[in-house]
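Final report, Chapter 2: Outcomes

The project's central promise was a pipeline that accepts a single protein chain and returns its three-dimensional structure in a standardized token representation, suitable for archiving and comparison. That pipeline is now operational. To close this chapter, we reproduce one record exactly as it appears in the project archive, with the input sequence first and the structure output second.
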Amino acid sequence: MNCRFCKTPLQDVFIDLVNAPASNSFLTHEQLNEPETFYPLKVYTCSSCFLVQIDEYKKSDAIFDNGYVYFSSFSTSWLAHSKQYVDKVTEQFGLTPQSEVIEIASNDGYLLQYFVEKQIPVLGIEPTANTAALAIQKGIPTITRFFGTELAQELVAEGKQADLLLGNNVLAHVPDIIDLVGGMKMILKPTGVITMEFPHLFQLVKNNQFDTIYHEHFSYLSFGTVKQIFESQGLIMFDVEELPTHGGSLRIFACHSNDNSKSIDPNVATMLDKEIQAGMTTRSFYEGFQQKALLVKLNLTDFLIQQKRAEKTVVAYGAAAKGNTLLNFCGIKNDFIDYVVDANPAKQNKFLPASHIPVVQEDVLKNHKPDYVLLLPWNLRDEIMQQLAYIREWGGQFVVAIPELTIL
């Protein structure tokens, strides 16, 4: 395998999570009696550009199909984050009803709906038909396609270009990141702005977030590497912000390299220096991650064995992709965790891949009164703990496994 950006042959293994099914391939009751397909989950570090990446073991069009079960609007904190973003950039870049906003991977319209409220024209681009259908129901024009240079050329030919082009948590999700960024350059107006958000590789390593590794995430990104990728396609970074979302993310601001209307904010040099000082441009930064993940595995399985011996009940909350990575790497199945609660009806009455843990609605939790609730989407732990605060009434406790096992 060669690096998907600089084509350097990949030899340095960042982490090997062995084999797992695709994290969002939930099963029906009938499918429990059928074979499951497992794919390698081995991650490499490029020794040249330091892009951390997995191969396209499962094709992206098979992952992001009509049965895709991730709907952005189910997280109230994510909706609040999106609304704050819309208010901020509308004022910052002077967006008006004469502007054009385009979002790549617009999901169910979770974000564009706030531009629509301001009467700013929008276009969503979303390959999963079921999430796109919800956006269309909200009155958000949506193209059900993968974005890249081909679609960008078609839209430009139709006279469609963006004053603001955005994409949240999409850079990591594309196997051909060069084609994506190349298409972004094509569709951006001469003085337009690109904003992208993505989990920061610095935080992944620092906080042992190995569970954010799964087949949907083809790349794991540092600011310095993303800056190189954008520059290779004629785009430059003019600002960057650190965000608390998804365990620590970056929001980058980019424009055409020949756009002289924007000055480079000192944040750019500061972030580059932060990564260099942390060692992210050296191989040593990426070494030893396997052992950190193993420690989480040992501590979590020890905890579950202890509770099982003590005849305590443990359930989980949040049938998130990261949760499936954690459970499958640790070898945890439905004999240790009775069920997982999730608010998304598309996941309810199904079963987690490999572990076969049933997904149920919240009423089951209220009636069952378990001793422990393992929070799988730890990035939403404050939101979930507030929502489920009533478990304290019967002595229930919350547990997280990342970055280390903690009873809350």
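Archive annotation: The chain has two domains: 72-286, 299-407.
This record, like all others produced under the grant, will remain available to the consortium after the project formally closes.
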